[in-house]
Amino acid sequence: MIHSFLMIGQSNMAGRGYAKDVPLIIDEHIKMQRNGLWQMMTEPIHFDRPSSGVGLAASFAALWRLDHAQDEIGLIPCAEGGSSLDDWAVGGALFENTLSQARLAQRTSVIKGILWHQGENDCSPEQAKDYSEKLAVIIRTLRQELNIQEVPLIVGALGDYLSNGLFGQYFTAYPLVNDALVHFANSHSNSYFVTAQGLTANPDGIHFNAMSQRILGVRYYNAYRDLKHIFDPVTDEDKILSAIYERPYTKTEKSKLLEYEFTIGNMDGKEYLRQLGALG
Amino acid sequence: MIHSFLMIGQSNMAGRGYAKDVPLIIDEHIKMQRNGLWQMMTEPIHFDRPSSGVGLAASFAALWRLDHAQDEIGLIPCAEGGSSLDDWAVGGALFENTLSQARLAQRTSVIKGILWHQGENDCSPEQAKDYSEKLAVIIRTLRQELNIQEVPLIVGALGDYLSNGLFGQYFTAYPLVNDALVHFANSHSNSYFVTAQGLTANPDGIHFNAMSQRILGVRYYNAYRDLKHIFDPVTDEDKILSAIYERPYTKTEKSKLLEYEFTIGNMDGKEYLRQLGALG
Asked: At what angle do helices A57-67 and A210-226 cross, to 10 degrees?
């Protein structure tokens, strides 16, 4: 049985980190959902935009795997870039799509957690004021509909870089959203907050860069594992990531990487079969 | 109201053509579904594999647009690489995912057609024998569930290159599948067959290359428009494609392309704003 996690929110949950900036994370026991089926995870996990890239879920899942060596984890990507909290209202397309994807996942997995990152599109005092209350309705309904009342929900802070970038004028109210996220986590059971302290952005000043997404995944996992808020960076985040990267690939993982190179035309058929055969 | 088209089948419906081999097709009035919402289509339209690439739907949609200058078309990607006809059985994950995605699309669009390409995974005399009957059950149920009994279904032939490639041994029975597809189209109303005559493959010998996918889209559209089988290549396929490529981009399309370059880090923020401003 796969242990699955629902990924919802906006672009920083979907992920816009540049893959070239960080080591690859793959693991044949980390799956992602596509068309209602599971396949080995590769980034981008989301496909909400052509610019989808590295998000927080890959390092989250890799850390989960270190603690669950015999089990499989499945990621259910439902985040949508540029979506406001109102876009996530119960009955809307994003909410309904999430329900349908989650229900497909529940045919072959048990949902063990909800990962939420959203709020850049709600950076005004008016929107921040209602944020916690609106989020509560969405999450409560989602839990009821999917019968996952008790699973941990992890919510992450918006990046402190937001108001400094080229588009910083649109994000001056971001601390109010972060306050709302803390308030939400403090006032709802099975809900945990994660800091974005020290994390940095792509040159756009909007999206966490790939390295920051990897770190954010470490923090989300710590919150999930320990069932507690993460108000400060986790000790030795870099070392934790190194442990993930140092894991040698299995034969199955190597063959999937070869298959990809062959399919996109980077390797001819004979070379593909030769290298596949060399895997033993 | 968007006119939408359901895309189902296996990898050659999803598309594995190399984008670098053909001119770009974008059009602000051609949409694709993501997370239950519509956004401007960009290839890959599918995301069933990291190797997803050019499929037949982009040129299909572009031709539809030439005949519907005032309307919008929406593509609903549900094809899954490597799927057999049995994987598409009613009640299975692929079928249920298709239903859920189609129902999301029906909130804001009217489904006007079904595009099917599948069969490489059914290339044995035993599987080909039951192909038409099995497909009939799938399509009949899909039509009933979605209340789209009358919309045209277009089914395309498998490529004649299949038995010649490096993996040709697995596809020797492909003509039997093509016979079954013809039989299906001939024996069911609102169903039309499209030839793959003359189309060629990626070096893998399995997937239509990008140029062939563009041509296949022309044939699918002709079958759809004229409600007839396409047993021979369409006259002037290259000229038809040239007409698509020659269409100048609108301001919205140019700004979407700029946004993409900016988001993936190919253009810094100041240059992005400068070029965006220059669009007028």
From this structure: 40
Q: Spell out the residues 6+ positions from residue B35 whose beta carbon is closer than 8 angstroms to its own.
A: A48, A78, A79, A80, A93, A94, A97
Q: How many separate domains does chain B show?
A: 2
Is residue B137 domain-shared with residue B264, that is, in the same domain? no
Residue B117 near residue B15 (C-beta atoms within 8 A)? no
DSSP string, B81-110: TT--TGGG-TTSHHHHHHHHHHHHHHTTEE
CA distance B184 to B135: 8
Residue B271 and residue B227 in one domain = no
Residues of A in contact with B88 (CB under 8 A): none
CATH code where residue B220 lies: 3.40.50.1110
Q: Range of B257's domain?
A: 248-280
Nearby residues of B259 by Cβ (< 8 Å), 6 or more positions away = B272
* pLDDT tens-digit series, residues B209-266: 999 999 999 999 999 999 999 999 999 999 999 999 999 999 999 999 999 999 999 9
Q: Which two tokens stand for residue B267?
A: 């253009």
Residues A235 and A253 both lie in one domain: no
- Asked whether the beta carbons of residue A204 and residue B42 sit closer than 8 angstroms, the reply is no
Closest by alpha carbon to A138, among A123, A124, A156, A155?
Answer: A155
ipTM of model: 0.97
- Taking a C-beta distance cutoff of 8 angstroms, is the pair B244, B61 a contact? no
β-sheet bridge partners, residue B191: B153
**What's the pTM value of the predicted model, to 2 decimals?**
0.97
Which of B2, B6, B21, B35 is most worth mutating to test chain A (most A CB atoms within 10 A of its CB)?
B35
CB neighbour burial string for A239-252, b if at least 16 within 10 angstroms, e if fewer: ebbeebeeeeeeee
Over the stretch A118-129, which tens digit does the pLDDT of each residue have?
999 999 999 999
Chain B residues with beta carbon closer than 8 angstroms to that of A79:
35
